[in-house]
């Protein structure tokens, strides 16, 4: 039997968005900690992406439960008169160094007791395994796709889960050099589905001109996600 041709109704677009800049004057690895909110610049980034997506066919907006992600999602949902759904699967990766600073001279690496957590970068040994992040993120993407069938959805999440999900879809290894992640603040990693199958992945930075100068000229990176 001949296969039924695809129609426009079979195409769904899911934008996986990283939140904007966070107010974090002490340089803490905040991870899943509560009460870390967008900075003034982060709020501007969220508004910029909302403007960028204002003319798109967005019918579903869903966010990580963390405040910085919810605040990033708010203007996008507002432009489209939508409520923000929450999906716990979009949350930041779990990290043993949460709540600490990280570095050799003045951070967690000064403590030999922490070195045992750095033994296996392929898993990684300091936090949630990469493959577990992929499983939950792919589930969240699938749920967003189903909620926006034939239209577009926005899922607001965090750098590391977004990057390993893209790496999985593009069939790259999950372990990586954090400095090489292509996932800047307020960026969009866009998955196009035909039916239930991802057929393309795109990347854009609608708020690139708002990135701090030290980040604008290179790939955004944080050693353990953001």
From TrEMBL:
A GO molecular function term, named singly, is: phosphatase activity
**Superkingdom of source:** Bacteria
SUPFAM superfamilies reported for this sequence: Phosphoglycerate mutase-like
Question: Could you tell me which InterPro entries the record lists for this protein?
Answer: His_Pase_superF_clade-1 (IPR013078), His_PPase_superfam (IPR029033), PGM_Phosphatase (IPR050275)
List the SMART domains hit by this protein, alphabetically.
PGAM
Q: Which GO terms describe its cellular component?
A: cytoplasm
Q: What is this protein called?
A: Histidine phosphatase family protein
């Amino acid at each position: 039997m001949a296969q039924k041709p695809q129609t426009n109704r079979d195409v769904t677009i899911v934008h996986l968005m990283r939140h904007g800049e966070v107010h974090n004057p002490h340089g803490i690895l905040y991870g899943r900690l509560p009460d870390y909110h967008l900075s003034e610049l982060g709020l501007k980034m969220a508004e910029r992406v909302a403007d960028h997506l204002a003319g798109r066919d967005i019918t579903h907006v869903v966010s990580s439960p963390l405040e910085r992600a919810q605040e990033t999602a708010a203007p996008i949902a507002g432009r489209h008169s939508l409520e923000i759904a929450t999906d716990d699967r979009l949350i930041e990766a779990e990290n043993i160094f949460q709540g600490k600073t990280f570095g050799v001279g003045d951070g967690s690496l000064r403590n030999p007791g922490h070195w045992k957590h750095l033994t296996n970068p392929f898993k990684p040994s300091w936090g949630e395994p990469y493959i577990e992040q992929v499983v939950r993120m792919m589930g969240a993407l699938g749920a967003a796709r189903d909620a926006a069938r034939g239209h577009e959805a926005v899922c607001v999440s965090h750098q590391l889960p977004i990057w390993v999900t893209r790496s999985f879809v593009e069939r790259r290894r999950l372990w990586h050099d954090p400095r090489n992640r292509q996932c800047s603040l307020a960026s969009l990693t866009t998955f196009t589905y035909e039916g239930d199958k991802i057929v393309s992945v795109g990347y854009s930075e609608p708020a690139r001109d708002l990135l701090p100068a030290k980040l604008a000229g290179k790939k955004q990176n944080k050693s353990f996600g953001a």
